[in-house]
Amino acid sequence: MTRYLTRRVLQMIPLIFGITVVLFAVIQAAPGGPEAALLESDRFIDPAVIEAYRARLGVDQPVPVQYLKWVGGALVGDLGMSFSTTRPVTEMIIERLPATLELMGASFLLATILAFGLGILSAMKQYTWFDHLGTGLSFVGIAMPVFWFALLLQLVFGVWLGWLPVAGTETVGATGLGDHLAHLVLPSLVLSFRYVAGWSRYLRSSLLGVLTADYIRTARAKGLSERRVVGVHALRNAMVPVVSVMALNLAGLFSGAVITETVFAWPGIGRMFVQAMFARDYPLLMGILLLGSVMVVIFNLVADVLYAALDPRIRYE
Amino acid sequence: MSNPATRTLIAILTTVVGVACAGERRDPLAPIDGRQILRVAYEREVDVLNAFTSQMLVDIHFSMVEGLITTDEHNSYVPVLAKEIPTDANGLLERMPDGTVRMTWPLQENVRWHDGEPFTSADVCFTWKFVTSENSQTYNRDWYLRISGCETPDEHTVVFTWSGEYAYYAGLFEAILPEHVLGGMTTEEIVNYTPYNRGAELVGTGPFRFAEWKSGEYLRVVRNEDYWRGAEYPVIDEIVWAFIPDANTRMNAMRAGQYHYARLEPTQVREVGDLEGYQLQLISSNTFLHLDFSLNTERSRLLFSDRDVRRALFQAIDREAIATQLMQGTVELANTPINPSGPYHNPNVSAARYDPTESARLLTAAGWLVGPDGIRTKNGQRFTFTLLNRAGTTDRIAAAQVIQAQLKSVGVEVAFETLESASWTQKWRSLNWEAIVSAWFLPADPSFTGLFQCGGPNNMTGFCDPELDEVMAASDRALNFEARKPLLDLAQQALADDERMLPIYYNVVPELVSTRIVGYRGSGTNFGSFWNLWQWSLK
Lengths: 317, 539
Fold this sequence. Notes:
The complex is a heterodimer of chains A (317) and B (539). Chain A has 317 residues and is mostly helical. Chain A has helices at residues 2-29, 36-39, 47-57, 63-75, 89-124, 129-143, 146-160, 177-211, 214-221, 226-255, 258-263, 269-278, 282-310. Chain A has 2 domains: 2-74, no CATH class; 92-310, Orthogonal Bundle (MetI-like fold), CATH 1.10.3720.10. Chain A is 76% helix and 0% strand. Chain B is an alpha+beta fold and 539 residues long. In chain B, the strands form 5 sheets. In chain B, strands 1, 8, 9, 10, 11, 12, 13, 17, 18, 19 and 20 form an 11-stranded mixed β-sheet that branches. Chain B has a 4-stranded antiparallel β-sheet with strand order 4-5-7-6. In chain B, helix 10 packs antiparallel against helix 12 and helix 16 runs antiparallel to helix 17 (481-498). Chains A and B meet through helix 2, helix 3, helix 5, helix 7 and helix 8 of A and helix 1, strand 1, strand 10, helix 7 and helix 14 of B.
């Protein structure tokens, strides 16, 4: 297992290097440049000011030169300075990470509880009204645009009922645990809805397959309670495909939820990504994308390791 | 649903939602511990707090930082750190025999920076040196370059020597930088100086001091107890600028009564027009949308050289319908580049009126006859051209689509080319285009010479009228209103007569303002409606 892990970690290095080349090329290939921020104001701008701005940021140099400078810095942990805020990218990412981790963590927790409950009950009560309802809700959850659902919840719970705030993380000046939780409810609900929909479907179908297996019949024949049969014997095997999906989704913990964070004005990485994109803030974009990519690669490995933990038949040499 | 796990789950969720809801059962706009807090749902996060290097329109900055002047609700300059604006009438302008102009700005006394240091004329000259230095990143640096010298006869007087007469002199120095904080640094160091850019060392002379900037969420400023206008100002204790980029969320937050003020989108006006506790203010902005034709390419000269043909094209376009139907009456029809809220607007000027019959007649008279496919032709040339659009400007593209449809009804075919901002600007500056729907955000100063003079820095149309140039140049040299107004009236009329561009509308910014706010006087310039924050109070 140690050799396997070492080999996988070493394989990550050229993979991440390749990813940075592709990301840099894609970002640079997009039309426009950081001067877009100046131009979109519709003000008269001296063309000399625009040229000086580009030169100061170094975007007047050939793309390979810009990449080599960036990668040289990244190798020693310096992701560069943000074009728009003149601050170190690493500092900006670290500043926004807690908000993203909190939101994503809350929605993952909520989604896990709901998805497992829904998935297990749907499988156990196959073709009942509960199963049909769960299936219907799951398809709604998968199909419904996130921004629309978010606005709908804002309208119902924020505007009509007046129960919950619609944006931000706190009421400035009146901050408290209750106030903060109130701000967390809607975005985490929106974000978890899609995960619940997906994961519960995976779990339901996986569990349905397992529940007809011989060893489950044997367990039932031994007189075990249905709760023990499902919870102890069936669930562990049924979780294998679900875990791989969840682990990959976990990578998103660090890259944030672009739409949800923007709609709820949640100060996370996802929203900063949107700002960076509109400002053509190349160093910040690269920093965020690199973080997201590294996390996907790492959580892929985590998923593989979890396979082995859950299924004794799987051994890594 | 009866198992213990489910019951526990329901109990946890109910508690969380209960605690959450309990925490919110208060009036979000009520004072906290007796402190009046103004809550603003602001549309985007600022980049840096240096008003000169920020790429935003900088109204947040002006709550903390003041300049020599600002603009009021009438689009006019009013003094702030200057006691008065130099004019011929007050004798503070002096024309020198060598053609230069000396302008004396008397400054407010007893003004202190937020750290207690006195504000002096040296700070003004320091600001001038910074802005005019290379790489200062100031968008209108070229205007400041006309100032050839800055003197400080005493701590409360600054004298600028201008290389000539430039009427826009009154609109510069919107902010002043503190020499005692930024002095001794290079331009590059000032531009990148994080403690000032992020607020830690931001000292201004404004009614509010920087307090906190929570990245991605809000910027908070608190009352400046030592404000120079007197102990009674500002009235408000604190302002929270919450960054809420999504327009629908801003609207929902306002409908939920969580903020005092928000700028909205024109399309949202109908939904919030009668919102209880709020007033909808439609602020005419200095953004002026128009249709330009070019004379720079062979094809565009063939199509647009004849003034009657240009008039015919303009008469085929129903601007009224664009303003009232497409934009749902949330914009103001434009006839000249100068906004009607300003004193230099000429109300007697009228751009081409919608008259498709006359349009068709003029085109036929000019030899453009309708062909078998409905498109007019002349000497084997079809009347077809390409309209350049900027991606993402949905209102402009929608207006362009209406123009396209209406011109087709008189036999003129319009194709679209849509480019992203930088590519769009590049193409526009390359002169290789035929027609364009674009907008200018004009400062409160009414000069539009750069847009229309022959070879002007922002005239990419190829139109050139030496007589108009003379009038505009004279208006730019007229240093007082009485001399300048008739010249600008004439220039606005000449522009309309020449049919070289079609003004469409002035953008209107819908501002939703709580009825609890007292002292609000909305303005459509880059100072925005917060220009007089020191006077605002909350009921």
